[in-house]
């Protein structure tokens, strides 16, 4: 192949596709390699962390970054955002002080207001004064007597639906309802893939594994890297490594070694009986890794619910979090995790872990104990740069010329990473200075809702999940 691409991107997860879409928007040609047959096929995501309220232990600064980045991604992919709130609580048995969470929420309201002052289009989480609401025990008792609301439209209605099901006597009060929304990975993947396929600036290579990278930077050629696949060698000026937890595997061929953690986790799909009204996402905080780790119940369409439980019997795994050794670029999981990643799950593991997950929700929502296994788990491995497993915001680094390494920890960081890579491409004179710095992307906007619905549904089915997981609970107006 004689063509020289400006940018070669390895990995079509959320980071790689958003980087390719940003390039395409600015008419910069790129080639994107994804080993699977569709994009956004790696570790799942379901929650837009617009404020970091699922993480009581992270810094205020990480909360602000998560909020800002989440708003930017929600503006880019509105078709994948499920506008239902999140119920946040601390069980009486847990250490967290609800008042610490409240101070942080007040800080976030002020910060959200400042983002809207900068750009009114940032107001995607509702009015700042409604960002969160608190409910005392007396409020909960009063709301429990209200009727159920089929399609709630106010915080009180969402809370009325929740309190009828939750054993709130087990929880510290007040409890919180916050405007952190759901995020549908099938819809994001569908829109991104359709947009990239239509773009003349991006060559999307699915079903294409990158085997090796040859560094030719010292050879005074018109390009800097040769990307080798089974059948071809592709020439690129700039290399972006967005291969997720396999970043180290690519770096082994670049003779680069850096400290990183990789973590395997899973969430479980359950089916419950129809409820009289929609529920928010339900969070019951607890210390990660202990038997009381956080429980998260995420509603989907048609009575499907996804469950995370931050214990080793549910979402986390023994030796699921590992760090790179001094002599290796790529940490290696144990055999059990590799089997799950590459060969699939044994039915008994799906059943026992989903049942554990259902029981963990049942502690706080007693009627949920009747839920059953609703489909295979959503699972995957991700990386965390450095050695701090509590880091929730990861971005991009530029370890050597003409090379970017994306290490996002939350899907919301993808656009920030893409913007930082664009800035570097200008610094390194791969592309001229860019004038347009708007967030919107016309290539994405050209994909209509019907096409997203169809392709998202196809992706969910192809991957073995109930088709309902490709739909939003709150349909967009
Ligand atoms: C259980 C779980 C729940 C999560 N929930 C949330 C959530 O609610 N909200 C949130 O924001 N984040 C969540 N995350 C984190 C989120 O999933 C990740 O941050 C994000 O998906 C990482 O995207 P990425 O593009 O960096 O990597 P990936 O999605 O891993 O993409 C990397 C891609 O590179 C491809 N690839 C790798 N090597 C090669 C090669 N040699 N050749 C070609 N292709 C290659 C892979 O196939 C893959 O598609 C969750 C993670 C897990 C595990």
TrEMBL record:
<protein>
    <recommendedName>
        <fullName>FAD dependent oxidoreductase</fullName>
    </recommendedName>
</protein>
<dbReference type="InterPro" id="IPR036188">
    <property type="entry name" value="FAD/NAD-bd_sf"/>
</dbReference>
